[in-house]
Sequence to fold (126 residues):
Amino acid sequence: MADADKFADKAAELAAQAAAAAGPLKEKATELANQAVAAAGPIAAQAAAAAGPIAAQAVEKATELAGQVAAAAAPLATQARERAAEGVSALAEGLDKLTNGKLAGPISTVSAKVEEQLDGRPKPPA
Fold:
């Protein structure tokens, strides 16, 4: 039992020494952390102030580029619709020939509906 008491006493003594040594280290760490926070505040404010105009410029440029893309895409979309409508007509004619005109009505109806969707407006069946 005496050895256990000696061991416990020595452990308590070492723990007390460690706690005493840790106190100043904790205070120094807290002091350094406070200094870092104080130094970071103005830097963060400067970064935010600098980012504002850059972000505004980025939005302005993106808007300009989006307008250019939309302007360039409009004629391409029109061409694509026209070519697709031509393809639908050619397909309908080919199917009509293959069926010897037996399915002319349904082919014409489907063709008109597809072309209507491509043009964005109703077309009477031919």
About this structure: The helical segments are 2-98, 104-119. The chain has two helices and no strands.
